């Protein structure tokens, strides 16, 4: 008896910062188009590096990366062939994709594609704000309350691990000074500007 498959499980292993993986996008899109719902996709992001220093140790530089991107043009995906200000690790992008999957599974692919496209095409002339030194400055930039982890990430040096305990102490001091308000939630809090 002939067995008919109703769906095939496809596991897509990738990294949002890998130009080789990005260049496979036309083939992956073709599979999605031709077979549609007959393919059940699982996205697995691997995070090629936690720290950009790993790339530096392997001899990569922003210029070498830009030149390397030229070899991927033949696959048809848009790539910004221009040296960026620095190298970037992608583990945090992978965690953002997983967080999206957990919070809003229908947005997982969109988050992956946006991060992939941004990594390959981020305009190096974009100005990057330095980390905030005062959590109240962070709160003033947002119309909604923020969690401690969000504020700590904004206050962290580029690609450095956020200092959550340090940030929470600064927020508590801001509350004591009457500049911020703490809204307890679970084992943490949301924070907003006072007044």
Fold and architecture overview:
43% of the residues lie in helices and 14% in strands. It is α+β, with helices and mostly antiparallel strands. It has two domains: 114 residues, Glutaredoxin (3-Layer(aba) Sandwich), CATH 3.40.30; 59 residues, Arc Repressor Mutant, subunit A, CATH 1.10.10.10. The strands form two sheets. A three-stranded antiparallel beta sheet has the order 3-5-4. The protein has a two-stranded parallel ribbon with strand order 1-2. The chain is globular and about 70 Å long. The N and C termini lie far apart (74 Å). The mean pLDDT is 87.
Chain-wise SSE layout:
Blueprint: E1 8-14, H1 19-23, H2 25-35, E2 39-45, H3 53-57, H4 62-70, H5 91-103, H6 108-121, H7 135-140, E3 146-147, H8 148-155, H9 164-176, E4 180-185, E5 188-193
Parallel strand pairs: 1-2
Antiparallel strand pairs: 3-5, 4-5
Helix pairs in contact: 5-6, 8-9
């Amino acid at each position: 008896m002939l067995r008919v498959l109703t769906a095939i499980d496809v596991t897509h292993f990738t990294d949002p910062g890998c130009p080789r993986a990005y260049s496979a996008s036309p083939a992956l899109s073709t599979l999605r188009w031709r077979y549609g719902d007959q393919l059940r996709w699982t996205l697995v992001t691997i995070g090629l590096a936690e720290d950009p220093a790993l790339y530096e140790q392997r001899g990569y530089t922003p210029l070498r990366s830009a030149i390397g991107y030229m070899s991927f043009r033949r696959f048809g995906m848009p790539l910004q062939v221009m040296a960026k200000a620095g190298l970037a690790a992608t583990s945090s992008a992978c965690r953002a994709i997983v967080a999206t999957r957990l919070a809003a599974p229908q947005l997982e692919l969109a988050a992956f594609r946006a991060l992939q496209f941004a990594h390959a095409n981020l305009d190096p002339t974009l100005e990057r704000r330095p980390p905030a030194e005062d959590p109240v400055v962070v709160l003033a930039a947002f119309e909604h309350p923020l969690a401690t982890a969000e504020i700590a990430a904004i206050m962290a040096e580029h690609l450095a691990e956020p200092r959550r305990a340090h940030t929470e102490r600064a927020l508590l001091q801001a509350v004591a000074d009457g500049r911020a308000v703490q809204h307890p939630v679970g084992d943490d809090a949301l924070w907003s500007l006072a007044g």
